[in-house]
Amino acid sequence: MPYICTIYRPMYGTNKFVSMGKIKENSTNNINKQYIQECDLSYAVCKIGGRWKLFILSKLRDETLRFSEIKRAIPGITERMLTLQLKELEKEGLVKRTVYAEVPPRVDYELTDIARELIPIWDALNTWGGKHRKFIEKQEDCRE
């Protein structure tokens, strides 16, 4: 079976490395990574996909918010998850984090220009979702 590479980890207390195993060329993770690299649509969906990212981005659509305001606006999200998601969105260039040198410290979050380009797409997806949901609900009503 073909392999892409062997993964090594450092052996504690030495300058030697130990093999952790090999990554298979056709492993699901590798195939997914390759697909995302080759398909722009998959890449885009990967950047905004997940349970919380669109919620967070939609809350920042019209205004700059502080962490606590975002948390209050999204029921069910934990502080840890919000922190992780905001860090990812910032790393991807979709959210701008501004720290003010005040006491107590103030941190604001806002959409970047790159994220603002997505607003018409979100609106179109929202419209599509509404139409699709109504269609499916009608189909389910007919079966009952």
Automatic annotation (TrEMBL):
Q: Where are the transmembrane segments?
A: none
Q: Which UniProt keywords apply?
A: DNA-binding, Transcription, Transcription regulation
Q: Where is the HTH hxlR-type domain?
A: 39-137
Pfam families named among the record's database cross-references: HxlR (PF01638)
Task: Name the Gene Ontology molecular function terms of this record.
Answer: DNA binding
Tell me the superkingdom of the source: Bacteria
Q: What name does UniProt use for this protein?
A: Transcriptional regulator, HxlR family
